[in-house]
Amino acid sequence: MINNLYVFAIGGTGARVLRSLTMLLAAGVEMKANRIVPIIIDPDEGCGSTSETVTLMNLYQDIYSALSHTGSLEAFNTEIKKLPFPNDYVLPLCGNIKTPFEDYIDYANMSKENQALMNMLFSEENLQTRMDKGFLGNPNIGSVVLNQFSKSEEFKKFATEFSEKDGIFIISSIFGGTGASGFPLLLKNIRTIGDVANAALLKTAKIGAVSVMPYFNLDDITVDGKDSVIKSDTFMQKTKAALSYYEKNMGQLEVLYYIGDDDRKAQSNVEGGARQQNKAHFVELASALAVFDYAESWEKLVSKKCLYKEFGIESKKSDKITFTDLCKKTYSQIAERMTELALASKFMRDALDDSTSQTWYGNYTNVSQNDFDSFTQKYLDWLDEMSEIDRGTTFVPFSLDDTPNDVFGFVNNVKTKRVASLKSNWDLANDRLNDVSPSAVTKAAKDTEGRFAAHVMLAMKRLVKEKINL
What we know:
alpha/beta, 2 domains, elongated
């Protein structure tokens, strides 16, 4: 079992996959690692997707810290560890990236010969590109800037702390600028880093990666009404070029996962910054599952013998994927755990206010607007985003509307079961909440907020087994 699994998430796609990974960990999907150590690499520090993921991981870790992890509760059971970076999980880049690219490379002070070379490699538009909102689909710019991050003290700290019981996984897209350039450079720098105590370990570490191929398009006009510098019709060209490079130069991996989606719908085009907050997509969830697969197979991986894997589903009767469309392994891995957290989230949203007079709630009268409440709302938002029809291929495992007369019939294409009780719907949920063992709650948590989360999840776990035929 891996001790520390360092997950490098490169660019906006990397951050969004990390968001899905956090949701799966919250649901209790089993991770064969003691802790996850996320490291985000993105020049666009203000990117909405990155900020959202950082906030989510901090919230997750607050809940994790309130639990004791000694009972039968699977939810929030894997630590998310934060390295001492100045901007939470984001690895600082070297140099001033809040400037045009020509200033970053000191173009004005180059010799005429070197300026001529730069003009051959970079267009005038490239040279004028500001980098504080990412590389805007230009991996040639990214390859220069990102080749510097290994010089940072923060990257050296990661290298120094790495041990032989640790793993490394890299998440990136192949069709943009940051991910396409950052992935090979990161791999090269990990394998060739010098001047650190653990350089030899990093040269032989078992490294896995997922390379996300195109799964959405972008509008040609940005939300600000400008012609976009990123053109969706170049995504496949960039993908083919990157795949050709990877085939010849990425042999230092132990396992490489590929994933994409042919049904690519156009999304709003925001060129970096806080407004770039793409909604969740099933491809990101499937990419997050690659991290679980890597951890599960880590001990059996053979050094420098790369395995290539893809993600597939059992069937696709329509553009709407449900649990029953997944292959048996994926279904058994996520369906029950995700359903438990979904039921808990629905209870928090639809029934908690009407349950405050119940016996079980008497221990939590001072718990309001707690972390668990905030997280479950984010979980529902994430599920809702993946189900939206403008996403192309959608993931619709649940019907999330408030249905007080059919509380347990919310799992699509899955039947409910009868139980021997005079109570039903949320009354049955409160009955099970009243029946949770106080000793089980005390064993599962450290403080009142932790006990509240544990209490709700233990009851929902029982209800899913009793009422839903998964």
